Amino acid sequence: MTGMTATINNIAKTVVSNAARRFITESNVNLLGNEFVFGNSRKRSDGFDRDGRLYGRITDGKQGFGLKRDANGRINEFENYRDPGQYQSFLYDNLDRLTSANTVGYGTQRAL
Fold this sequence. Notes:
The protein is mostly beta strands. It has two domains: 1-61, no CATH class; 68-112, no CATH class. Helix content is 0%, strand content 64%. The protein contains no helices and ten strands. The protein has strands at 4-8, 11-26, 29-38, 43-48, 54-59, 63-69, 75-80, 87-92, 98-103, 107-110. The radius of gyration is 18 Å and the shape is elongated. 1% of the residues are buried.
C-alpha cells in the first residue's frame, strides 16, 4: 500500500499518501521503517528492529517515542522524544509479569 483515500458524500479525500517501507542502517544493524504522509499533511515514521518489533515513532519530526527492550524482548524503557527528560522504566519477574513501573518525577508504582 502506498496510499489510501476515503469517499464520503461522493467526495474523495486522501487519508494517507506516499507510504513507503525503507531499510535503515544504524550501528551496522538493518532496521525496517515505515513512512506515511496523512491527508492533513502530517508525516509519521515508525522504526522496527530486525525482529519486526516497534522501537520508535516520530510524527512531523517533533514528537514521538522510543522503546528499549531487555534481552527477553520485554519493553523496559519508554522514552518521550518531545521531552527527553521524561521516560518510564519497567521491571518484570521471571514469569514476564510486570512488577514495577517508574516514571521520572512521579515515583515508583508496584503492580499488583
